[in-house]
Design goal:
It is a single chain. By secondary structure, the protein is an alpha+beta fold. About 50% of the residues lie in helices and about 5% in strands. Strands 1, 2, 3 and 4 form a four-stranded antiparallel beta sheet that branches. The chain is elongated, with a radius of gyration of 35 Å.
C-alpha cells in the first residue's frame, strides 16, 4: 500500500469546486423551473383566451371570453379553474387586473371595432365623408335654432288671431261674402273671434301640418302609406347602458385618439353595416321580431335606438325624425328666403288672409309664418321621400322643390298623397343616420351598440345568460409557485386581445 495525502490548500480548492458545481446546478434547476412555470402560466392564459365567444366574433368581429361560461354568473375562481385545467394546477393564482367590454364606457370594445374596420376596409371607406363633418355640425346647429322657431309659430299665429277685429254678427257674414282673393287654390274663410288653434285660421290653412305634428307627433304626417310601423320594444333597465355593471380592475394600455374624426366615421360605418334601421338597403328586410329564427331581433330600428336610446321602435323613430325634420326645415327655409317667385306666392296668400281677418297691417308677419310653414311642409315631403328609400336634395332648387303652396293647405289633413320623388345625386336616409351618429357622444354610441349586441345574441341564439359586462378582453394574473426546497417564485402574466 502506498500512503496518500492531501494538503489543506487542495482540500479547500476541492470543496470550493464541488460547491460551485452544485451551486450552478441548483441555480440551473431554479431558473429552469421558473421558466417552465412561466411557460405553463402563459400557455394556460393563451388557452383560456382561445375560448373566445364564437358568435360574438362571427357576427360582430369582436374577441372576448364569456366569463360566466354559460352560467350567467362571473367569478374569478371559475376563470382560475380554467387556467388550472390548462396546466397551472400547482400554482396559486390571483387575478389582479381584468377588463370587460363595457369598461370605460365600452373603450375596449371600441378599440377592437376600430382595429377590425381599419384592417378590413381601411380609411378609403370614409374618404367621401371626412370633408362633410363641419357641414354636419352646421346643419345640427341650424336644426336646434329652428326648433325654437318652430315652437313659436303656433303662438304667433294665435296672437295674430287675437289681434283680429270682427264686425258684429251679420257683418261677419257680409265680410265673408264680399272677400275676393287673387290666390289660386282653396277659398279662404273668415273665422269667428273665439276660434282657437291654427286649424281654424283658414279652411285647410297653411299651418295644419305643424298643428298636426304638435298634436299627434311627427309620425302622423311623415309615414309613407306603404310603410308599416314596427311595434317592437325592449326593457331599458335591463340594458348594459342602464343597469349596474361588473367593472374591471387594474391598469391596461389604452389606444389614444379613438374619438378623432376618422375614428368616429369608421366606427359609425361599423354601426351602419351591422345594425338595422327603418329604411333597409335594397334587397334587405327589416326584422319585425314576429317570425322565429336567427333573423329575429328585439328591435327593428336598431340604429335609431343607438341614436335615441328609447325603449320602443316607435319612440326612437319619432325622436330621430323630429331632429331630421328640424334640420330639413332650416335648409328649406333658407332656400325660400332666396326664391323671389315663391315669396311672391306667399305674399299673395298673406295679404288675402290678413285682409279677410281685417288686419292688413299683419301681412308681413303672416308672410314670415307662412314661409316657415311651407318650409315645414316641404320637410315633411322630404322625410316621406327618405323613408320610401329615395333620395332628396340637400340644398333645394326650383327643380327639386316638391310641395306647391296650394298643397300646403291640405298637408297633414290626411287627404293629400304627396310622397315625393327620387332626386338623382341627392342624400339618403342612411346619410342622415351617418350625420347624426357623428354628432352623437361616442360613449353613448359605444354602450348602446353593446346593448344591441347583447340583446341580439340572447334572442338569436337563445343565450339568455349572455352579458357583455362579463365578456373579458384583457387579464393580469399574479402567480406564485414553489420552486425548490420551499423557495417560492411570484411572477405576473398578462394576456389580452389587441
Amino acid at each position: 500500500m502506498k500512503k496518500a495525502e492531501i494538503t489543506a490548500f487542495l482540500s479547500i480548492v476541492f470543496i470550493l469546486t464541488v460547491s460551485f458545481v452544485l451551486g450552478i446546478l441548483e441555480v440551473s434547476v431554479i431558473h429552469t423551473t421558473k421558466n417552465l412555470n412561466r411557460l405553463a402560466a402563459d400557455r394556460a392564459a393563451f388557452s383560456v383566451f382561445g375560448e373566445y365567444h364564437r358568435k360574438l366574433l362571427e357576427d360582430y368581429h369582436v374577441f372576448a371570453i364569456e366569463g360566466s361560461y354559460g352560467t350567467g354568473e362571473y367569478s374569478d375562481e371559475r376563470l382560475i379553474g380554467r387556467m388550472h385545467y390548462y396546466g397551472t394546477a400547482g400554482m396559486e393564482q390571483e387575478i389582479t387586473g381584468i377588463q370587460y367590454l363595457t369598461d370605460l364606457n365600452g373603450q375596449a370594445f371600441r378599440e377592437q371595432v376600430l382595429q377590425y374596420m381599419e384592417e378590413r376596409y381601411g380609411l378609403s371607406l370614409i374618404r367621401d365623408f371626412t370633408g362633410l363633418t363641419s357641414r354636419w355640425e352646421e346643419q345640427a346647429i341650424q336644426g336646434e335654432e329652428m326648433e325654437e322657431t318652430e315652437g313659436n309659430i303656433l303662438d304667433e299665429v294665435n296672437d295674430l288671431m287675437e289681434s283680429a277685429q270682427f264686425p258684429e254678427e251679420d257683418g261677419v257674414a257680409d265680410t265673408q261674402e264680399n272677400q275676393d282673393t287673387d290666390l289660386e287654390g282653396p277659398e279662404t274663410d273668415v273665422v269667428s273671434p273665439d276660434s282657437e288653434g291654427v286649424g281654424d285660421l283658414t279652411e285647410g290653412g297653411p299651418f295644419t301640418c305643424i298643428e298636426e305634428i304638435e298634436k299627434s307627433g311627427i309620425l302622423s304626417v311623415v309615414m309613407p302609406k306603404d310603410m308599416e310601423l314596427s311595434g317592437l320594444a325592449i326593457e331599458l333597465e335591463t340594458q348594459p347602458s342602464a343597469r349596474s355593471l361588473n367593472t374591471g380592475k387594474g391598469t391596461f394600455p389604452v389606444r389614444q385618439g379613438t374619438d378623432g374624426v376618422e375614428e368616429k366615421l369608421l366606427f359609425n360605418e361599423y354601426v351602419l353595416k351591422n345594425f338595422s334601421c327603418a329604411v333597409p338597403d335594397e334587397g334587405q328586410s327589416v326584422s319585425t321580431g314576429e317570425n322565429e329564427g336567427t333573423e329575429s331581433r328585439s328591435l327593428a330600428y336598431e340604429t335609431e335606438y343607438i341614436l335615441e336610446g328609447k325603449s320602443s321602435d316607435k319612440e326612437n323613430l319619432e325622436s330621430f325624425l323630429m331632429k331630421l325634420f328640424l334640420v330639413r326645415m332650416a335648409l328649406n327655409y333658407v332656400y325660400l328666403m332666396g326664391d323671389s317667385a315663391k315669396q311672391a306666392e306667399v305674399t299673395a296668400l298673406a295679404v288675402a288672409v290678413t285682409t279677410a281677418l281685417l288686419i292688413p297691417e299683419a301681412a308681413e308677419v303672416l308672410k314670415q309664418l307662412i314661409l316657415l310653414a311651407w318650409a315645414a311642409g316641404e320637410s315633411v315631403v322630404d322625410i316621406r321621400t327618405l323613408l320610401s328609400g329615395n333620395r332628396t336634395a340637400l340644398i333645394k332648387s326650383s327643380d327639386t322643390w316638391q310641395l306647391p303652396l296650394s298643397s300646403l293647405l291640405t298637408l297633414g289633413s290626411g287627404t293629400e298623397q304627396i310622397d315625393g320623388s327620387d332626386v338623382p345625386g341627392g342624400i339618403t336616409y342612411k346619410d342622415y343616420l351617418r350625420m347624426f351618429l357623428f354628432l352623437k357622444d361616442p360613449d353613448d354610441i359605444n354602450m348602446r351598440v353593446l346593448d344591441r349586441i347583447e340583446e341580439n345574441i340572447k334572442m338569436e341564439y337563445g343565450m339568455d345568460w349572455f352579458r357583455t359586462d362579463q365578456c373579458i378582453t384583457k387579464i393580469e394574473v399574479k402567480n406564485t409557485s414553489e420552486i425548490l426546497g420551499g423557495i417560492t417564485y411570484t411572477f405576473p402574466v398578462y394576456f389580452g386581445y389587441e
